[in-house]
Amino acid sequence: MEQRVTALLNDVDGDVAKVHTTLTAVQTKLDGLLDKITQSDLLTKADLDTNLATFKAQIDTALTTITQIDQGLFEATDVDGGIPAYMGNPLATARAQVDTGLFNLGFGTDYHYDIGTSYNPFSASATAPSNMPDLWNSGLRKALNLLSLSDTLDAVVFNGDNTDEPAYSDVTEERKAMIKEQADFATTAFTASESPVFLMKGNHDNNQDQSATNHTLANAITDEDFAKLYHQADRLYGESRNGNSNYFYKDFPKKKVRLIGLDSYDLPETTTSDGTLVFNRFTTSGFQQSQLNWLANDALEVPAGYAVLLVTHAPINGTLVTNDASINHDIVKHILEDYVNGVSGQELTGTNTSVPVNIKYSFTTKGKIAAVVTGHMHTDGNATVNGINY
């Protein structure tokens, strides 16, 4: 992209000089005509027609050049080729169906933007398309498709696995490329959205799909990295967070909705003596004490009459999936069910001693959860479990 822009600007410099030369020549001829008039050396109609025709041709050429410069600059700064033509009708149809009287969430998940990967999301028995790397590289275009509707939406969430892990044999270079992918995606989201936009992290975003010897904190995308890349400390839309956490909530008073984002890869970044990470966020989803206490005693302290909409990358274990590689999902599920049932005086203790949890909370009234919306599985589906729509 940088090379394209540099080349274009060099071309622009040359074209602007040509336009300047053309317009200077036009001005010189006009000055000559004015001199003739001033000296009473009156023009014939033929003289005037000839000169005006020349002026028109020169001015048309100059305007065409300027138009080409404008179009060229637009194309050079348009992310990854922009919105493809074939998305025009689907996006127009979607826009026409938006009821602005309701709460409208733009939800994008598992785009796996990548600048070079061999990752195959299909089952082992299915053959991946030969253009799989190109499909993953189109992740920014997919984001733009959704963001083109953001002026009609109350909020947009990119729900994790926003990026993938580039295929590099050098893990240091791989991490650099991964940081760039995250920055590309975040910059696209924050600059193209006309509504509040939030980025959650998924298991592919952490750069922890590594061999045992490379599974270190130094090679990972850390919580501190996410806080910077996703501008969590800046609270760009006035959302509430727990410190610089990836998880958040944001109220929309006109629609009486609280949007809550949960970080389902919230596991300790502790390491062994040789620097190896104890927990693998690529294979295991989990929630720590701090987030669970925040959920029960802060995020779910909702104003009267509000509905709650939750988003998180990994499905809560025991709802859409049954997954043994999950930590403290049962606590999340319990909290949400206690919220909708108005259970007071509750104390929960987790069963995982490596990620201990003990929280107390009390819900004095019954709450309303519109839905818990997740990703990760690359399939569509829903289930109502104990009165909650997942």
Question: Your description of this structure?
Answer:
- Helix content is 38%, strand content 13%.
- With 390 residues, the protein is α/β, with parallel strands linked by helices.
- The strands form 5 sheets. A 5-stranded mixed β-sheet has the order 4-5-6-8-12, covered by helices on one side. The chain has a 3-stranded parallel β-sheet with strand order 1-2-3, covered by helices on one side.
Write a concise keyword list for the protein shown above.
elongated; disordered N terminus; 9 helices; alpha/beta; 38% helix; 390 residues
Number of strands: 14
In whole angstroms, how far apart are the ends? Answer: 41 Å
Largest sheet: 5 strands, mixed
Low-confidence stretches: 1-9, 69-77
Mean pLDDT: 86
Across the major sheet, the strand order is: 4-5-6-8-12
Number of helical regions: 9
Q: What is the N-to-C order of secondary-structure elements (H for helix, E for strand)?
A: HHHEHHEHEHEEEEHEEHEEEEE
Strand content: 5-15%
Structural class, from helix and strand content?
Answer: alpha/beta
Task: Label the overall shape.
Answer: elongated
Helix proportion of residues, in percent? 25-40%
Q: What integer value in Å does the Rg equal?
A: 29 Å
